[in-house]
Amino acid sequence: MARHPDRPDQRGTIVPSGAGFSGSPTGPDGLFDLSNIFKPTQRTRVHFMSQICPNPGAALRAATALMFTLGAALASAAPAPAPAVQSLSLDQCLSFAMENSHRRPASALSVEIAEAQYRQTQAGYWPQVGAEVGFQRRDQAPDFMFPASAFAVPGQNITIPGLGTLQTPPQSLAVPAQDVKLMDRDTTSASLNASLLLWDGGMRKGMGEQAKGGLDAAKAERRRTDLEIQDSVTRMYYSAVLAEQLRQLGRDTLARMEATLSLTETMYQEGSGKVKKTHYLENKVMVETIRAALATLEKNEQMAQAALANTMGLNWQASVAPTARDIPFEPYGADLEQLASTAFRFNLDWEKLEAGIRALQGAETTARSGHYPKLALTVDLHQYWNDYDMGLMTHQNKEGWTLGIGLRIPIFSGNLVRNQVREARARVDQAREGQILLKEGIGLMVKDTLLGLNAARKAVGATEAAMKAAEENRDLNTRAYESELVETQDVIKAQLIESLMTAQHLKNRFDHATLQSQLTLIIGSEIWKKLQPGP
What we know:
Elements: E1 7-8, E2 14-15, H1 34-37, H2 42-52, H3 56-77, E3 86-88, H4 90-100, H5 103-122, E4 128-137, E5 143-146, E6 149-153, E7 156-160, E8 164-168, E9 171-175, E10 178-181, E11 186-199, H6 203-270, H7 277-311, E12 320-322, H8 336-340, H9 348-368, E13 374-385, H10 395-398, E14 399-408, H11 416-482, H12 488-531
């Protein structure tokens, strides 16, 4: 049946007419064939080019400009190269984190603040010396109005030799009021004063104890910050090692499953017929499932490396790959249960609480000092400059010194000090009760960690034996499958069990290592050294 030119065939494909072109525009199956379309004759080629491009030079320049534009656009759209992944050991990661972590400067500044507060309390034991310089100009010169007065002069007998006795009658002499100038309008003064608190009833001692307790707590928090950084980096490092091991395990599993799939395909096509296509398809489904799981494992590995870099203080674009290929497994032979009873002595939370109790005891001492008097010694040197030399501004008054001693005695304050002491004592008792609870809590945390370590140690040994048995079982099933002695499902099951046991063994080693790091954080580094195995 002939097809009409420029009409769709039965499959809806446009078949244009071939006028002006050599060859048929349709292929062997009657479809639209581009290879035949673009085989024009010489006359048609010239006519066709003259119609679509009357100016070939301009078209060439336009095409060249378009190529450069597309090249620049693709270059700008190309993603920036990913930062290189650094490979570091655990010690290098810990050293880098200690130098670059943003948490250490904050804890160091807390210690610096506490030290400054403690030095402030010690300043009270030193004399307080100050100087003052001032200038005063009054609206008018100060004066003193001496009031008017009268002096009574009694009568007197005055003997004059050769003349006899002269008598004077009593009389009264009036003295008018007098305006006395004290100083000039302008006065410049300078003074140097000093005071020394001789006795305060324990106020300065209590304030020093409070500040010293705060300083000890800040130092304990700084050491805890270091331990937390060490614990975080250690756990992230072993997480990266575990992620790399699981990714490699996924690749190995996928390679073995692909080999099994290839063997299944061969046996299905060329074997005795025991292996069917359904076996091949089941194997194919499992291979693709593992391939998808491998993509997740690769993503987890990259995120674990990024998390390790972030914990070390690097930016979000950085990644750190561990150089270690295995997670260390070092079980301890010492009796850890005996050490658990004394672990609280080295716990930093315990140390902070003890420092807090000392600070509260200092607050009680400070409050109790309110019942006692305060005794202080004062010294003052002064000098005045005034153009007037009479009145108050005599040479004797213009310069001088004073030495004094003062005593302040509390008499009644409405039971304020008494209740302040009661409050401070109650806070001390409350902290001591919390200390008992903390001791029990630390003991439970240590015991839980020790039990976890013991369980992880047993699990590592059990899964190691199971992993070896699973590996031998997989090897036997694979060789038997080649001889068509076992079913396809048995081979797949054996390979999956081996991968599962290997992953479980690696996870148990990871748990054991992280529990050791957690124990270091709980009990501190001092007792942790006692847990280290001997040579």
